[in-house]
Amino acid sequence: MLAFGHMHYAVAELTLPEQLIGASQGFLEVTVQDYLERSEIQARQEIQINRLDPRLQLALCDEDLTTSLESPAQPVGRVTVRVSCEGSTPWTVFVPAQVKLYRKVVIAIRPLKRAVVLGNMDVALVERDVGLLTQGYLTDLNQVLGNRVTRAMMTDQVLTPGTVEMPEAVRKSDHVVISAKKGGINVHMPGEALSNGSVGEQIRVRNLSSQRVIRATVVGPGQVEVPM
Predict the structure, then answer these.
(1) In three state form, how does the secondary structure of the chain look?
(2) What is the pTM of this model?
(3) Where are the domains of the chain?
(4) What is the tens place of the pLDDT at every residue in 194-203?
(5) Architecture of domain 168-227
(6) Residue-wise pLDDT tens digits, 151-175
(7) Among 76, 71, 73, which Cα is nearest to 99's?
């Protein structure tokens, strides 16, 4: 009986794993919600605290436990929570956890060949854990429709900013119209594109009137613009 009573007393003097888990869970719930609000992100969250070492023995804390995010900078994916006791018997322990944030992202709904211009039959919005999408992701179909893929894509593959580009509005050797604007003056000249270019890109163009090679910005199919 004495031995049993002694064991009961020892257990009572320890911080239980359930306390560490509860403190970490509560901290992450608040931290993740704050992160979503600050980032203006709509997402469904799941928080999972990893198993703690059953051999862990920490003195019972006579003050409220303090918690902070040890890593990474944002509470997404694999995270570590620093749980500390700053009481008369101080200690610190690191609690690993997994934060899953589910958002609707753009995926391919059929195999796509490189350079395919994307339409409604090619892509859809599907919920994924964005903490696993280290290469980035897209959340709006308007970010991809009418653009083309830079590489072949498999069914269910998530599209990233690097896998989508605007189609070329001008191709090398195309005849283009060079526009020069200043104030109310608008001058048009014939030109020849010396390289391919998408809207917003700068390319080399030969002015067919002067034969000078200039740099111009692609503004539309067959249209480039230079500052006057």
Answers:
(1) CHHHHHHHHHHHCECCHHHHHHHHHHHHHHHHHHHHHHHCCCCEEEEEECCCCCCCCCECCCCCCEEEEEECCCCCEEEEEEEEECCCCCEEEEEEEEEEEEEEEEEECCCECCCCECCCCCEEEEEEEHHHCCCCCCCCHHHCCCCEECCCECCCCECCHHHEECCEEECCCCEEEEEEEECCEEEEEEEEECCCEECCCEEEEEECCCCCEEEEEEEECCEEEEEC
(2) 0.67
(3) 2-101, 103-165, 168-227
(4) 999 888 889 9
(5) Roll (2.30)
(6) 999 999 999 999 998 888 888 999 9
(7) 76
Pick the CATH number of 103-165 from 3.40.50.1980, 3.10.20.30, 3.90.1210.10, 3.40.1050.10: 3.90.1210.10
Q: Six-digit token pair at 90?
A: 């101080």
